TrEMBL record:
Pfam families given in the database record: TrmO_C, TrmO_N
Higher taxonomy: Bacteria, Pseudomonadati, Pseudomonadota, Gammaproteobacteria, Chromatiales
Matching PANTHER family: TRNA (ADENINE(37)-N6)-METHYLTRANSFERASE
PROSITE patterns: TSAA_1 (PS01318), TSAA_2 (PS51668)
Top-level taxon of the source organism: Bacteria
This protein's name: tRNA (N6-threonylcarbamoyladenosine(37)-N6)-methyltransferase TrmO
InterPro entries associated with the record: TrmO-like_N, TrmO_C, UPF0066_cons_site, YaeB-like
Organism name: Arsukibacterium indicum
Amino acid sequence: MNAFQFNVVGTIESPYKQKFAIPRQPGLIPEARGKLILVPPYAENDIIRGIESFSHLWLVFVFHETADKGWSPLVRPPRLGGNARKGVFATRATFRPNPIGLSVVKLEKVYRQQDKLILELSGIDLLDGTPILDIKPYLPYADALPNASGGFADSAPQTMMTVSFSEHAMDFCQAQTAYPDLAILIEKVLKQDPRPSYKKQRTTEQHYGMSLYQFNIKWTVNGEHNHVTEISQLP
Ligand code: SAM
């Protein structure tokens, strides 16, 4: 048996509406909250009985946005500036023989909404609509290995980027009472410098845009500084 078929047990609702600007691993932005919506026949209370006693969960998911782009044995990890090539199995790249991802996330809350069972999560690195194949509890005694070697990604990425907001952008964030963490989420996303490696060398002012939740965020980059110029509601 060389091929298997799996069922999607649920789908992610995420503030990240496009791949650009999603952190490269979970936990880097704790304010990134999302929901895992389990649908019938996996929305039974029994299926998650006992889950609340775990603080974190492993999610096994499909890189659905890039799944049809195939895979390659060598990839260029952004961590290495996008130039050095590494074997795909020596990386967490999305272009894999089986487009399967693995993320550990924090479990915040579990509740029901009609026939849906919802797991509220934080620290996610998942695109909106990501299909989930499996959920497993994170077991610190087995999964946390403080002496393990992290190869070329031995510690969380560090950047020196700073972030400021125009008065309009900050007022817009403060008016979004349903999204009290909007400004801090934007700040943390920009601090990790989401630009592709080849654009990081540029010295002239650059203009960027991204979607978070239902908002369109525009900013400029000058050296090591991001300035959020404008935020608007997406149509
Ligand atoms: N933590 C996971 C892992 O190790 O398997 C994902 C690591 S991968 C390097 C992280 C990137 O996957 C994010 O920056 C985002 O751009 C991308 N991503 C997240 N959800 C995706 C999806 N559903 N389809 C395609 N790409 C996705």
